[in-house]
Each structure stands twice: as C-alpha cells, then as structure tokens.
C-alpha cells in the first residue's frame, strides 16, 4: 500500500496530517480517498462512520471481496471503488455529517488511520443579496487567493444556464457567455483567483438564483462544493414629499 500525507488548504476542505475537514453542500456528492493506488493481495480497507463499520474491501490471491452496509440511513448512497477503496457518498444529507474513519491493513505496512470530519451544509443556507438597479454586485465564493481549485462553474436561473467558467486543466477562463436570452450582454466579470462573479449595471431581469460549483481533487478526496445566492434587483424609485399648507382666512 502506498500512502501520501499532505498539508494544504482548499475551498471546503482543510487537510492537516491524518485528519481532514470537508464541507459539502446538501445534495452534492463527495469522494473520500484512501490514498491507495491499487489494492494488493492481503490488503484490507475499512470505512467507519461514527464508530460503526459502513464499508470494507479486501483482496486475497484469487478475488476481491467488497462489502457496503445497506442500512436505512444511507439508502444505497454509498459507493466503494473496487480498485482503490475510495468511498463516494452520493446525494449527501445533513444527517451524513460526522466523523468518517479510514483503516488500512497490509502485510507490507499499515499507515495510520485517517479521520475525515464531514460537514454537510443545508440547502436552506442560501445567501440572499439585494441590489439597486444600475449598480454592481459581487457574489463572493469562499475561496482565497491561496486556495486551490480545478474547476469553477457559475450557473443562473432554474434552468441552471452556464454563464461563467474557469477550468485550470483545460485552460478555460470564460466570461463571454451572455447567459439566457443574452441578458447579461458582457456585463459579467470573473476573478481569476477567487472565482467571485461581478455583475455590472444590473437590471431587474438579472434577479434570480445563482449557483457556483467548485471542484478540486487532492491527495485523498475529490470535493464538489456548491454555494447558492438569491439576487433581488430593486427598481429605481422616486420619493416625492407633499407639503400641505393650510391657509386660514379671517
């Protein structure tokens, strides 16, 4: 078994030695990586959640044995990679928050146990933004200049139309999309470091749901992190004050 330990900070993820903290949005998926390239003979990988065994995989000279717990809480949402032992949790729920422990046993040497502390952010935690028509608004991601990401996708509306994209691997930095019906008309600006999206000269038709998907793969996990914003654009108004003068005539 080959095993890699790193220390790095990532959007939604904090890695520190043999412990990792992972934040993921409700309904998304997350893959917790074992760090194993390929399971060898007599290797065994076990995953536990809150102390209870939920999945395991082992290999002898003739076959690979794979077991995933079929209980009510996960409802067939667990998937175990039969080559690496990576654990994927699909359609993740807030009740999936907690401590996931990775145990690897190998006659060639067993690495220390790894603890993943997973926090599932409720879908109700959508940030509301109100802005006056004609102004600019910046939708801030949770990234900083020093954090690492592979792909950032901004989507708008119920149809989730792609309006901006950064893909480091493919060398894509795209803000040219005008969005549905051409409504944005080159009014989008994308920060190449943080992925934050700025809408200039905003109009009432820009009101709606904006979602940003941040994806990255490092050492022992693949993370898909989603943030949502509800933008309300208020039309300009004129405030008129009427002053009534009462004239008394004798």
Structural key phrases:
Immunoglobulin domain-containing protein, eight-stranded mixed sheet, signal, mainly beta, 250 residues, nine-stranded mixed sheet, single chain, Ig-like_dom_sf, disordered N terminus, Ig_sub
Overall geometry? elongated
Largest sheet: 9 strands, mixed
Number of alpha- plus pi-helical segments? 0
**Percentage of residues in DSSP E strands:** over 45%
Low-confidence stretches: 1-16, 238-250
**Terminal residue distance:** 105 Å
Task: Please write out the topology.
Elements: E1 7-10, E2 13-16, E3 19-25, E4 30-32, E5 44-49, E6 52-59, E7 64-68, E8 78-80, E9 87-89, E10 98-105, E11 114-121, E12 127-132, E13 137-139, E14 151-156, E15 161-167, E16 172-174, E17 188-190, E18 197-199, E19 208-218, E20 221-234
Parallel strand pairs: 3-11, 12-20
Antiparallel strand pairs: 1-2, 2-3, 4-9, 4-20, 5-6, 5-10, 6-7, 8-9, 10-11, 13-18, 14-15, 14-19, 15-16, 17-18, 19-20
Keywords: Signal
Pfam family, one: Ig_3
Protein name: Immunoglobulin domain-containing protein
Short précis:
Keywords: Signal. With 250 residues, the protein is mainly β. 0% of the residues lie in helices and 46% in strands.
How is this structure best described in words?
With 250 residues, the protein is mostly beta strands. It has no helices and 20 strands. Strands 4, 8, 9, 12, 14, 15, 16, 19 and 20 form a 9-stranded mixed sheet that branches. Residues 19-121, 126-234 form the Immunoglobulin domain.
């Amino acid at each position: 078994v080959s095993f890699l330990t790193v220390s790095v900070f990532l959007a939604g993820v904090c890695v520190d030695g043999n412990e990792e903290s992972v934040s993921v949005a409700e309904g998304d998926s997350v893959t917790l990586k074992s760090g194993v390239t390929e399971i060898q003979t007599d290797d065994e990988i076990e995953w536990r959640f809150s102390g209870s065994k939920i999945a395991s995989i082992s290999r002898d000279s003739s076959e690979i044995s794979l077991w995933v717990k079929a209980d009510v809480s996960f409802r067939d949402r667990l998937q175990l990679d039969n080559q690496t032992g990576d654990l994927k949790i699909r359609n993740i729920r807030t009740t999936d928050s907690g401590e996931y422990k990775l145990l690897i046993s190998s006659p060639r040497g067993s690495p220390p146990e790894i603890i993943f502390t997973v926090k599932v952010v409720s879908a109700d935690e959508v940030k509301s933004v109100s802005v006056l028509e004609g102004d600019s608004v910046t939708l801030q991601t949770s990234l900083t200049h020093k954090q690492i990401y592979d792909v950032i996708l901004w989507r708008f509306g119920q149809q989730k139309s792609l309006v901006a994209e950064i893909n480091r691997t493919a060398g894509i930095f795209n803000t040219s999309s005008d969005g549905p019906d051409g409504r944005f008309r080159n009014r989008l600006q994308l920060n190449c470091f943080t992925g934050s999206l700025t809408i200039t000269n905003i109009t009432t038709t820009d009101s709606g749901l904006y979602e940003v998907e941040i994806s990255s793969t490092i050492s022992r996990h693949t993370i898909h992190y989603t943030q949502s914003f509800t933008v309300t654009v208020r039309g300009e108004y004129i405030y008129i004050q009427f002053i009534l003068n009462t004239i008394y005539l004798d």
